[in-house]
């Protein structure tokens, strides 16, 4: 950690540069000869990213930022606050500390937090930032977390892990065994120090695959921000052998959309229907959960088709997702497309449809945006249809 970055004139320069075009700034000559220009640019670029993601860090003076990738991998304040509400007790150890955002919020719920980080510079940056943020109950240790657990040799109320994929992991399939630390391999070792384990994984991890690698999974939380799934949270409890609960939440600007269910919960009988007056599209967290067949009974809706994952009703209802009024519905063919959508402007969504959004746009010369929302999908009779809608 280069403490010269904290010198007043450099901090002033960093703050003044936040409003300057970053690409042009990078081409400028370094005004400070005794410190690397790349280090200053890193501080400027990361602070820009922190403005929306980490407002508490952004608005605090003399905060130091790590590498770009460390900041990209860290939780946002919104998701970190959510995680903090999942834990309670006196002690927690974070085996993969990183930039420490999660630990900052854990420290508001837990008396003592241990932050383990292998990278010395990152550990020093985090320790410095915690002092700036007036956090005194987090201990930063620059060691391998397995060694820390053995050396401390004490029970913790919670263990928190955010495993990262190894650089040598091949293929596109995301498995926990391909990450560091290897949680499945070390799970019994971790349970010897705590009854409760909280694991954060990337959204790319398949839930079924995760369940096949882990045991004692009590809850899985699917957390989305503005309809983009940001992380999966796995709550493990030693000895737990009952059904897993899936909890989904989507944080929008003004609302929190929640939908919970039991993993082995069977859907009630439901019916398929041709499009009616209103159309419903589940949010991304629900789509990730796979609870497609539970939605009709939960919300008293009918499904358009088994694999379309769109729903309809005659009367408008509250829903954890987007709602639309259907203005027009027609079979997907050249005549209808030329009449209603060719050379127009519209938002396009495809569900269970053979053509991609980009292909449809190019084929029919449809520009993106506007107030018209179109769904290209398949109905209960397996016909390819187009729905033209207005968002509610």
UniProtKB/TrEMBL annotation:
It comes from Flavobacterium amnicola. Residues 278-318 form the PG-1098 ferredoxin-like domain. Residues 321-391 form the THUMP-like domain. GO terms for molecular function: methyltransferase activity. It comes from the Bacteria. SUPFAM superfamilies: S-adenosyl-L-methionine-dependent methyltransferases. This is Class I SAM-dependent methyltransferase. Keywords: Methyltransferase, Transferase. One of its GO terms (biological process) is methylation. InterPro entries: PG_1098_Fer, SAM-dependent_MTases_sf, Thump-like.
């Amino acid at each position: 950690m280069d403490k010269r970055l904290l010198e007043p004139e450099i901090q002033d320069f960093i703050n003044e540069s936040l409003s300057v075009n970053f690409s042009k700034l990078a081409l400028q000559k370094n005004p400070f000869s005794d410190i690397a220009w790349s280090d200053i640019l890193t501080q400027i670029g990361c602070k820009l990213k922190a403005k929306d993601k980490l407002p508490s860090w952004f608005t605090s003076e003399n905060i130091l930022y790590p590498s770009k990738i460390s900041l990209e991998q860290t939780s946002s304040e919104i998701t970190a606050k959510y995680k903090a509400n999942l834990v309670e007790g006196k002690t927690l150890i974070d085996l993969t500390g990183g930039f420490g955002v999660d630990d900052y919020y854990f420290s508001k719920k837990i008396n003592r937090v241990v932050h383990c980080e292998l990278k010395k510079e990152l550990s020093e940056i985090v320790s410095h930032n915690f002092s700036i943020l007036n956090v005194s109950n987090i201990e930063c240790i620059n060691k391998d977390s397995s060694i820390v657990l053995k050396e401390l040799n004490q029970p913790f109320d919670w263990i928190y892990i955010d495993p990262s994929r190894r650089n040598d992991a091949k293929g596109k399939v995301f498995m926990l065994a391909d990450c560091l630390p290897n949680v499945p391999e070390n799970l019994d070792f971790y349970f010897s120090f705590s009854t409760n384990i909280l694991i954060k994984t990337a959204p790319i991890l398949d839930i079924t695959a995760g369940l096949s690698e882990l045991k004692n999974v009590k809850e899985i939380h699917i957390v989305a921000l503005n309809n983009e799934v940001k992380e999966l949270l796995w709550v493990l409890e030693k000895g737990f052998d009952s059904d897993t609960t899936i909890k989904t939440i989507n944080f929008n600007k003004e609302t929190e959309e929640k939908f919970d269910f039991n993993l082995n919960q069977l859907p009630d009988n439901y019916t398929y229907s041709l499009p009616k007056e209103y159309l419903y599209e589940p949010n991304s967290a629900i789509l990730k959960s796979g609870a497609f067949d539970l939605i009709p009974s939960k919300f008293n809706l009918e499904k358009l088709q088994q694999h379309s994952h769109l729903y309809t009703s005659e009367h408008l209802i509250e829903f954890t997702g987007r709602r639309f009024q259907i203005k027009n519905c027609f079979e997907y063919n050249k005549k209808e497309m030329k009449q209603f959508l060719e050379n127009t402007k519209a938002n396009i969504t495809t569900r269970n449809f053979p053509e991609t959004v980009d292909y449809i746009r190019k084929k029919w010369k449809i520009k993106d945006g506007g107030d018209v929302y179109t769904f290209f999908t398949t109905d209960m009779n397996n016909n390819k249809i187009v729905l033209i809608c207005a968002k509610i």
